[in-house]
Amino acid sequence: MIDVIRCKITKRLIETGLDNDGVVYLSDRLNKDLGADSLDVIEFVMQIEEMFDIELPLDIEDHYQTVDDYALAIAREFPCSKP
Domains in the chain, start-ordered, CATH in brackets? Predict the structure, then answer.
């Protein structure tokens, strides 16, 4: 499941132009490595919430920075991945 999530959000970042010449690494930080400003991050979060039909915490930007941080946060929202 986590690999599907990683693939989908990476693809979304590339589609929206938040990438490094078509490449996104899981360790990339949205703001520092991919050049996203706070509005870009908010839009990205809204897109992935809609994509996965979930709600992420409002302060997600304070806690998550890398692409993989966001993927793991999404994975935790699915009942099958909760302890």
Answer: 2-81 (1.10.1200.10)
